[in-house]
Amino acid sequence: MFYSTVFPLHTANTTTTTTPFSLYFGTALVLLVLVFFSLTCFVDPGIITKDNVHNHLALYPPTTTQVGGQGFSLFPPRDCPTCNLPKPARSKHCRGRINACVARYDHYCVWINGPVALGNMRWFMAFLFSTCFLALYGVILGVTGIKRDMNSNGSWDYAYMSSKENRLVILHESWRDLGYFVVTRYQPQVAASLFAGAAGLILLFFSVFQIHRLATGYTTNEVFRMREMKREMRQHYHTTTNINSNGGGDPSYSSCIESSVTWDRGWKQSLSEVIWPGYYLHRAPGENAKRS
């Protein structure tokens, strides 16, 4: 849409045949987004196999939280009934086109038709931020293109007779009339810019939110599982402990869940594991041996 509506505004009414920088830069951004999208789709998301399961177990060992004499666990020590392999913490069996257990599973993305996990999270984040930047750059192109065309045509000085004020009004003197003129004359460009702006803001919010989760050591899958675990603990306390008149039980269940997230290793290492997952995966068995 931008190639057929916005870019022509940057080349119209020019005395040279030189292609503007915005066309080269915009094309480079589109190609960069496609590269990150392809990497997200086709790079190994972190499939757990017989050859690497030992490394994954060392990087994210299963944990168990004991509350009220009964075991609650986000990722208990167990084997996957489908893969017949031990399940590391933070992993999940993906039944889509992968059909295997995936390490540090975050969520299933319909846009790539696959999981976003340990192996491709960095490319997913790069895809998000590059798409966000491309959308916001599209807004800049739309606004500057409309302004450039209006300057070339002298549209700012258009005059009309106002029936209400009974006088000649210059277009740039009335913000309402100027907005109406821009929307009616540049409908495709305004529509493309508004769509790009809305998409860019949504992607920016989602990207920052995702970075916050990664920095604090959580995945989307873990957030949902923690909510389910809290409900199970509430039901457990309501059936096995005395509830006071205000309906309160043991207040420690929430803190116990938080303390069970032993893989929260600080924001620096949490983000480093996203950027260099292979490095931490290969060094995990050696680090565990040193600690033992």
Jot down its keywords.
292 residues, 9% strand, 2 domains, two-stranded antiparallel ribbon, elongated
In short:
This protein has helices spanning 2-5, 7-11, 21-42, 53-59, 121-153, 175-185, 187-215, 220-240, 253-260, 267-275, 277-291, and strands at 65-67, 70-72, 92-94, 100-102, 107-109, 114-116, 159-162, 167-170. By secondary structure, it is mainly alpha-helical.
What do these coordinates show?
The chain folds into 2 domains: 1-43 and 120-156 and 183-240, no CATH class; 45-112, no CATH class. It is 56% helix and 9% strand. The chain has 11 helices and 8 strands. α4 crosses α11 (277-291).
**Lateral strand order in the biggest sheet:** 1-2
| Element-level helix/strand string | HHHHEEEEEEHEEHHHHHH
Query: What number of domains?
Result: 2
Mean pLDDT: 81
Structural class, please? Answer: mainly alpha
Number of strands: 8
List the topology elements.
Elements: H1 2-5, H2 7-11, H3 21-42, H4 53-59, E1 65-67, E2 70-72, E3 92-94, E4 100-102, E5 107-109, E6 114-116, H5 121-153, E7 159-162, E8 167-170, H6 175-185, H7 187-215, H8 220-240, H9 253-260, H10 267-275, H11 277-291
Antiparallel strand pairs: 1-2, 3-4, 5-6, 7-8
